[in-house]
Prior knowledge:
mainly alpha; Rossmann fold; 2 domains; two-stranded parallel ribbon; globular
Amino acid sequence: MREVFRFFNKKPPTKDKYFAEIEGDYLKIYTSRGITAGRDRLNEIYEAYYNQHVHPAELHPGVISTLNECQVKGFSLGMITTQKKELTVPLLKKFEIEKYFSDSYFHVFNKAKYIQIFLKEYSISPANCFYVGDAPSDIRHAKKASVKSIAFLNGFVSEELLKAAEPDYLIKDIYSIIAIVDHDNV
Length: 186
């Protein structure tokens, strides 16, 4: 995001301001601050920077064991992300985790809608669905879809912002998901 603002010689919002404002369609963040380029041009700038800097990316500790445990327990897992498919799939393949997801939805601005689509597709009751996200907008979308929200404190978005979104659960360790789902579904 900062690189796009730098490219257009505009002052970017702070990281906290960005995550407080974003609801789904990132275009509004740019247009509200005087950037008039279209989505394609913004994506082109973002993707070039992203592709140059994504290589050292690593999975958080516990992701593989959590996904394995979810698979053993028979959970249906879906991925709903605002990130474009061509940027996401290489990482899923790099970390060998694409096989864990029953369905994936990319470049989604209305995550609540796609949570509902996933629920219908896999015949899951909203009461038995947990949406894990690392941004306040993820928590808000989970609430709109009437599912339980788990805010993952990955160190990128401030704890205060995530707490302000009022998630059902707040975790620092990804493996905590298993205990939450097991306890909640007793």
